[in-house]
């Protein structure tokens, strides 16, 4: 093959990439980028901004290394370097992205969403998915919800094939199972680069087995897997109803186990709840160590956000992180997603993420997102009276009842009064007119403004959001 220069190589990489990712993504993230040089088996890629660097580092590092390797065998890693000069359109090192699309003939509509397989072939034709080197045991934030899982993983990484075999990690989606499993794999490889560590999502593992069964060479399949030092199969709940696959897996499992090699499995449920799996397979899974990962509490969520900020080398105001930690209550993946979105949006608009911008973004991202409190809903709760609301608010804010319903303009009273009106309106569905009368004969527009103000403020004021939800809870709403 004729020697290509860096620009040509980069162009080819982008051409390949254009077949895998959306046109808009390619333009957003790869405009004004260049392959600057190759040094010590590392490709140095120039990018125009710190933000592009972080984004590419996070999302495309492995893919780019794989693609570059197609043209430069020796590449082992990629590194990103910020060079603002690249943003000049006449910088000779960059590629015109539009031309890429003309050449590849891929229009946005046709852009295939084929992701690079990112697989590595190990000894004797055994295939493993490439593990993400970013998943380590050190950068996994430990809290009470995952402490045992983390400890078990550390123990296995330090002594594979030992007492915790198999290691079975279970828990809901996006709670860190894959992170932990790959972290163990990475650590075993760190300690012994010659170890044969195979990481496969169960779908991929099932394919392997089905293929072997189809070719009638399951014997060969089994003998291949005897070479494995550590077999990691992620999300094994997908083995359900796959009869033949389960039988084959059972044999492979036994071979590896008897050779005192390590097995690590993950699932969304504990073994005893994997009803669709053969009993004998389930009991094998339950033989070693079973640990779970739970959704982390507020403190751990906040620590995770801080950790992710360090990894992405960004500084974000504490109150913004607190707001995200408080409001995201689905999964750690979502937590990270919101954080990245917040960074991305702010960077595109060239400002820092603020409480308000993040709150707005989150509301847009998921209208339902735990902001139920925002709804000026028409709840028909007749069990509560206006008096109840006034009493609870008065107690909560330690403002005398008489002052709450008076004309007093003391700063400490204004906000509790507005909250009170808002709650009466939203929970008891009283008219503005009526509320005005209850509050010392106020004009209905005054009441309306007060309610609107609270609705708006709830969108970004975490403190207020907390206050209102506590008050509601106290009223049994
Ligand atoms: P699962 O496999 O359970 O669906 P993942 O392992 O893919 O979840 O985790 C989703 C994301 O959340 C990953 O980016 C992972 O790094 C991150 N994550 C989850 N838990 C933690 C944690 N305790 N500390 C740091 N990152 C975490
Ligand atoms: Mg996973």
Description:
The protein has 477 residues and is α/β, with parallel strands linked by helices. It is built from 21 helices and 10 strands. The strands form 3 sheets. Strands 7-8-9-6-10 form a 5-stranded parallel sheet, with helices on both faces. The chain has a 3-stranded mixed sheet with strand order 1-2-3. Strands 4-5 form a two-stranded antiparallel sheet. Helix 1 crosses helix 5 (97-104), helix 12 crosses helix 13 and helix 19 packs across helix 20. The termini are far apart. The structure holds adenosine-5'-diphosphate and magnesium ion. Adenosine-5'-diphosphate (ADP) binds next to helix 7, helix 12 and helix 14.
CA radius of gyration? 28 Å
Structural class: alpha/beta
Number of DSSP helical runs: 21
Largest sheet: 5 strands, parallel
Which percent range describes the beta-strand content? 5-15%
Oligomer: single chain
Shape: globular
Instruction: Round the mean pLDDT to the nearest integer and report it.
Output: 86
Number of strands: 10
Major β-sheet strand ordering: 7-8-9-6-10
């Amino acid at each position: 093959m004729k020697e290509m220069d860096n620009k040509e190589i980069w162009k080819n990489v982008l051409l390949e990439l254009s077949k895998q990712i959306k046109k808009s993504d390619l333009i957003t993230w790869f405009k004004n980028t260049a392959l600057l040089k190759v040094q010590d088996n590392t490709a140095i890629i120039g990018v125009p901004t710190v933000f592009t660097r972080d984004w590419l580092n996070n999302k495309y590092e492995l893919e780019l290394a794989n693609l570059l390797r197609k043209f430069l065998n020796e590449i082992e890693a990629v590194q990103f370097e910020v060079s603002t000069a690249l943003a000049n359109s006449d910088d000779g090192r960059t590629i015109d992205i539009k031309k890429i699309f003309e050449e590849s003939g891929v229009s946005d509509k046709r852009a295939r969403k084929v992701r690079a397989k990112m697989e590595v072939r190990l000894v004797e034709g055994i295939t493993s998915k490439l593990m993400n080197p970013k998943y380590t045991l050190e950068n996994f934030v430990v809290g009470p919800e995952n402490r045992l899982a983390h400890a078990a993983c550390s123990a296995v990484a330090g002594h594979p094939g030992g007492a915790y075999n198999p290691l079975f990690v279970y828990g809901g989606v996006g709670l860190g199972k894959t992170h932990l499993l790959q972290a163990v794999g990475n650590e075993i490889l760190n300690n012994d680069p010659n170890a044969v560590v195979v990481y496969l999502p169960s779908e991929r593992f099932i394919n392997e087995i089905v293929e072997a069964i189809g070719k009638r060479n399951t014997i060969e399949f089994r003998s291949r897997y005897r070479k494995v030092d550590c077999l990691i199969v992620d999300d094994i709940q997908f083995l359900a109803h796959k009869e033949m696959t389960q039988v084959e897996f059972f044999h492979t499992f036994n071979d590896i186990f008897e050779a005192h090699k390590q097995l690590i499995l993950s699932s969304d449920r504990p073994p005893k709840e994997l009803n669709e799996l053969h009993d004998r397979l389930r009991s094998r899974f339950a033989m070693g160590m079973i640990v779970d990962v739970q959704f982390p509490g507020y403190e751990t969520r906040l620590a995770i956000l801080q950790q992710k900020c360090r990894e992405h080398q960004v500084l974000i105001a504490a109150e913004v992180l607190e707001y995200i930690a408080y409001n995201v209550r689905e999964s750690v993946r979502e937590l990270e997603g919101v954080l990245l979105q917040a960074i991305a949006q702010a960077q595109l608009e060239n400002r820092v993420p603020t409480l308000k911008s993040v709150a707005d973004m989150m509301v847009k991202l998921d209208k339902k997102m735990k902001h139920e409190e925002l709804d000026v809903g028409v709840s028909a709760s007749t069990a509560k009276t206006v008096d109840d609301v006034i009493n609870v608010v008065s107690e909560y804010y330690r403002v005398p009842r008489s002052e709450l319903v008076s004309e007093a303009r003391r700063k400490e009273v204004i906000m509790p009064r507005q909250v009170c009106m808002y709650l009466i309106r939203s929970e008891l569905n009283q008219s503005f007119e009526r509320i005005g009368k209850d509050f010392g004969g106020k004009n209905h527009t005054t009441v309306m403004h007060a309610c609107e103000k609270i609705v708006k403020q709830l969108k970004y004021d975490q403190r207020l959001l907390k206050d209102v939800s506590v008050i509601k809870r106290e009223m049994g709403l």
